[in-house]
Specification:
By secondary structure, the protein is mainly beta. Helices cover 12% and strands 35% of the residues.
């Protein structure tokens, strides 16, 4: 489906593909937490298909680290909603840089055209809607220990889910793509696309903003 006609992310509508009992429970939880025009979920950005451990090994770095505690299993069924993220700030789609190495490996950047964009899937954790998952890597973490211009960088490089891999996602439902902001539970800050960065850092996603503007807004375009 072309971007201009991409369906919006609507959690309650997509739940019809899931188990009926889980669907009802999830819908009730969401309705208690959201208003008529907004949706809030605890989110985990992740990517799967090729083993994250294998990817990290190829890049010459560890997958796990101290500071992000282990958590229960996350369910990223293909029956759950799938969508691409497009930055309002750059006008580009979010893609994962698997060609990068070292501490920049698998960086998320809002720099891609539609056909190059990473595809995300809603996940559940302990029966709650908790995640975003893409089809080609590992869980996404906000790099809490990075400093300077890389502080809070988002990278698809974790084998498990801890606080660094959890995000609160709030979306305004519309007739077109839903407009969302993403707040990291690791940094407590909103994810921004770095519009003013250049070269290989152009459009880098970082969990570093205390408020929401166009740089911190993303369209969730359904498939």
């Amino acid at each position: 489906m072309p971007p201009g006609r991409a369906a919006g992310l609507r959690f309650h509508a997509r739940l019809t593909r899931c188990d009926k009992e889980k669907r009802k429970k999830a819908a009730l939880r969401l309705r208690k937490k959201i208003g008529a025009l907004a949706t809030t979920v605890i989110a985990v950005l992740s990517v799967a298909s090729i083993s994250p451990a294998a990817r990290a090994s190829a890049a010459g770095e560890r997958v796990d680290r101290a500071g992000s505690e282990a958590s229960a299993a996350v369910d990223c069924s293909w029956e759950y909603p799938r969508f691409r993220l497009r930055s309002r700030g750059t006008g580009k789609y979010v893609a994962i840089e698997y060609g990068y190495t070292g501490d920049r490996y698998a960086m998320l950047r809002a720099r891609a055209d539609y056909g190059q964009a990473s595809v995300f899937v809603m996940c559940t954790h302990d029966g709650l809607w908790t995640g975003l998952w893409t089809i080609d890597g590992g869980f996404v973490a906000a790099e809490v220990n990075y400093t300077g211009a890389n502080d809070g960088m988002l990278r698809a490089r974790s084998a498990g889910v801890g606080s660094w891999e959890q995000f609160d996602v709030r979306c305004v439902v519309s007739n077109g793509p839903d407009l969302c902001n993403i707040r990291s539970r690791g940094t407590g800050l909103y994810v921004a696309a770095e519009v003013n960065y250049s070269g290989g850092d152009d459009g880098m996603l970082r969990a570093r903003s205390s408020s929401v503007g166009s740089w911190e807004q993303f369209y969730a375009e359904g498939m």
